[in-house]
């Protein structure tokens, strides 16, 4: 019998929201992604232990500090993942650089150079940047240099419009985190899929992009349940955690296509400059709070990763 996951793959590029080698081998996604949280998980993955130990050893021999080893380990894991997927691996710029355009560009160039030294071309990677105004400007510079970018922590139409204007290769609107905020704000336990604020946000962004011939890839992310995924069937890309991939693979119900370029409503272009972007973000409490929270949490996980590596290096 055809599973929901099989049906989804017929209309959407499925990305594995994991950096664990074993999981990528199991689910065989087209693309995969990394961030500090996922690299932390990969460090506990037995299938990655040899790679982790080797990279820490190399860093120790070179006299690198734990932060530098965290940087090289992230790329080493990404390089390994490029051997397992036919598409792209996203690699994140440090969250602490989220409001530093030039710092983000410099770090991105270092990531590209590290991949190149490992035999991985820039056509196999995406540089992940937070969808701040400064992060979007960094993406604009990098895209002009032929380095494709994934704009993450995206919660609003203002961010989506600015990313499109910058020529970003891909955006990652966070479905579940939007829903989490509205559940708390509205005192709700759940939403029907068509009423789900996270689902509605991605549908609106998808419609805007397709209505205006925007080539930037829309990749829904941060799902809480399979209903949210099914409600976005047909979206360009969807990045899905292993436990939800399991659930989709066990489901043999019919999956109707929900999103299609042919169904675009013809939304008018939106003008977006820095002043408008900052005003729109200020007016959107959810987007402002979730963006800030996401940056803090990525930075926290990055610091945890550095501390864990420091302990390993000292052992």
Fold and architecture overview:
- This protein has 315 residues and is of the alpha/beta class.
- The protein is built from 14 helices and eight strands.
- It has helices spanning 4-9, 21-27, 36-43, 49-62, 66-82, 101-117, 133-144, 157-165, 175-186, 197-211, 226-230, 242-249, 274-283, 285-314, and strands at residues 13-16, 31-33, 89-92, 125-130, 149-154, 170-173, 217-220, 237-240.
- It has an eight-stranded parallel beta barrel, surrounded by eight helices.
- The longest helix has 30 residues, at 285-314.
Average of the residue pLDDT scores: 95
**What portion of the residues fall into strands of 2 or more residues?**
5-15%
What is the N-to-C order of secondary-structure elements (H for helix, E for strand)? HEHEHHHEHEHEHEHHEHEHHH
Structural class: alpha/beta
Silhouette = globular
Roughly how many Å is the radius of gyration?
A: 19 Å
Instruction: Count all strands and give the number.
Output: 8
User: How many distinct helices?
Assistant: 14
Q: In angstroms, what separates the terminal alpha carbons? A: 51 Å
Report the uncertain regions.
Answer: none
Q: Which sequence of strands runs across the widest sheet?
A: 1-2-3-4-5-6-7-8
- Helical percent range? 40-55%
Sheet having the most strands: 8 strands, parallel, barrel
């Amino acid at each position: 019998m055809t599973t929901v996951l099989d049906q989804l793959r017929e209309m959407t590029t499925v990305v594995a929201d994991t950096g664990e080698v074993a999981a990528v081998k199991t689910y065989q996604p087209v693309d995969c992604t990394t961030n500090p949280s996922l690299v932390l998980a990969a460090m506990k993955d037995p299938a990655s232990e040899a790679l982790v130990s080797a990279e820490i050893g190399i860093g120790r021999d070179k006299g690198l500090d734990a932060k530098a080893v965290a940087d090289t380990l992230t790329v080493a894991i990404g390089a390994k993942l490029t051997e397992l997927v036919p598409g792209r691996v996203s690699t994140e710029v440090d969250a602490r650089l989220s409001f530093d355009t030039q710092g983000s560009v410099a770090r991105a160039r270092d990531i590209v150079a590290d991949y190149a030294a490992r035999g991985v071309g820039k056509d196999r990677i995406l540089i992940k940047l937070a969808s701040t105004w400064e992060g979007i400007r960094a993406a604009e510079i990098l895209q002009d240099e032929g380095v494709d970018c994934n704009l993450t922590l995206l919660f609003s139409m203002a961010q989506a419009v600015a990313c499109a204007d910058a020529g970003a290769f891909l955006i990652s609107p966070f479905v579940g985190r939007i829903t989490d905020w509205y559940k708390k704000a509205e005192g709700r336990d759940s939403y029907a899929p068509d009423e789900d604020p996270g689902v509605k946000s991605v549908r609106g962004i998808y419609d805007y992009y397709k209505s205006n011939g925007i080539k930037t890839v829309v990749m829904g992310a941060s799902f809480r349940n399979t209903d949210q995924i099914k409600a976005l069937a047909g979206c360009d890309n969807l990045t899905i955690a292993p436990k939800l991939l399991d659930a989709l693979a066990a489901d043999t119900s019919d999956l109707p296509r929900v999103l299609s370029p042919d169904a675009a409503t013809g939304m008018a272009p939106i003008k977006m400059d820095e002043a408008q972007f900052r005003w729109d973000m200020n007016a959107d409490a959810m987007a402002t709070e979730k963006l800030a929270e996401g940056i803090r949490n990525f930075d926290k996980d990055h610091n945890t990763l550095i501390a864990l590596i420091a302990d390993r290096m000292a052992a």
